[in-house]
Design a protein that fits this description.
Elements: E1 11-22, E2 39-50, E3 63-67, E4 86-92, E5 101-108
């Protein structure tokens, strides 16, 4: 069931299926992505809505990269994300092509 709250400016809300967790760690930083993976490949199942200022549509059925700032591990109220996980997420649209969408919030769908 899709969220009914408005989508924040510059973000898109979508239903996604995680295809693969990318194993690379961020060796340059000192944050949580140094300890656990933060990027995944996901397939877009359905676009639920767009916030204002989003000018490039997200294609349903396409594959995108996602970046989880606090890693894909479970913690502080967030469930673990792994291959096969289906989720609804609010994604910050990248300003540059080829950069992952940043996951602002998500919930696992069952």
């Amino acid at each position: 069931m899709a969220s009914q709250e408005p989508v924040a400016p510059g973000q898109v809300r979508a239903v996604l299926s995680v295809q693969k967790v990318l194993p690379e760690l961020d060796t340059a930083g000192s944050g949580p992505c140094r300890q656990a993976p933060c990027k995944v490949e996901a397939q877009v199942g359905q676009v639920v809505g767009y916030g204002s200022g989003v000018h490039v549509p997200l294609a349903g059925g396409g594959s995108i990269l996602l970046y989880f700032p606090l890693t894909v591990r479970a913690g502080e109220g967030t469930p673990e994300v792994k291959a096969g996980t289906k989720l609804e997420a609010d994604l910050q649209v990248p300003l540059t092509e080829g950069v992952p969408y940043t996951v602002r919030k998500y919930k696992i769908l069952h």
